[in-house]
Amino acid sequence: KYSEIRHLEGKGNFAVDKYYKFPYRLFYRHKLRMALDLFPKITVHNVLDFGSGQGILVPELKKRALFVRQFDINDILDKRWRFDVIVCCSVLEFCQLPHTLNLLKGLMKQDSKLIIASPMDTPQSRFYYKLIGDKNVRNSHAKIMSEVSKIFKMETYKNWFNLYFALRASRL
């Protein structure tokens, strides 16, 4: 709910007001639901919220895992960590893809899952970003999927009105 995250305005690389107020929250919240729907149906031991920002997704992840670790751009990553699930919501479109995906693969156990949710690069999404005044340069969904498929096996893919996609992948 917006009332639960309003205090985060100005503390991350996003504008809470843009993404969480009507009518835009319908889109953003749907993307988060798409990612959560791809989560394993059992409680897992540990999850990494990669690119967590202020931790908007953490309360939902805690319902699905015994331990949730947040990681954001200024945090220190211990390469000895291993996770059952790694979640990347609205992150990979801003990353150096081969480097980041190899880093994530190194943090995964053999049977781990990688869950990604990102905007698509379509006329619909460009119009949406124009409406909310978002001028960020992004990796396209096609580039993200291409790079993911080089390192991971894609298991499930969802597309929502050519605005957002979500996928679940495992190690090759």
Question: Main attributes?
Answer:
alpha/beta; globular; 172 residues
Structure write-up:
The chain is α/β, with parallel strands linked by helices and 172 residues long. 34% of the residues lie in helices and 29% in strands. The chain is built from seven helices and six strands, in the order αααβαββαβααββ. It has helices at 2-5, 16-20, 24-37, 58-62, 97-106, 123-132, 141-151; strands spanning 44-50, 65-71, 83-89, 108-119, 152-160, 164-171. Strands 2-1-3-4-6-5 form a six-stranded mixed β-sheet, sandwiched between helices.
State the gist of this model:
The chain is an alpha/beta fold and 172 residues long.
* Overall average residue pLDDT: 86
Number of H/I helices? 7
Gross geometry: globular
What multimeric state do the chains show? single chain
Class based on secondary structure composition and strand pairing: alpha/beta
Unreliable stretches, pLDDT < 50, 5 or more residues? none
Counted beta strands: 6
Order of helices and strands: HHHEHEEHEHHEE
Write the layout of secondary structure elements.
Elements: H1 2-5, H2 16-20, H3 24-37, E1 44-50, H4 58-62, E2 65-71, E3 83-89, H5 97-106, E4 108-119, H6 123-132, H7 141-151, E5 152-160, E6 164-171
Parallel strand pairs: 1-2, 1-3, 3-4
Antiparallel strand pairs: 4-6, 5-6
Helix pairs in contact: 5-7
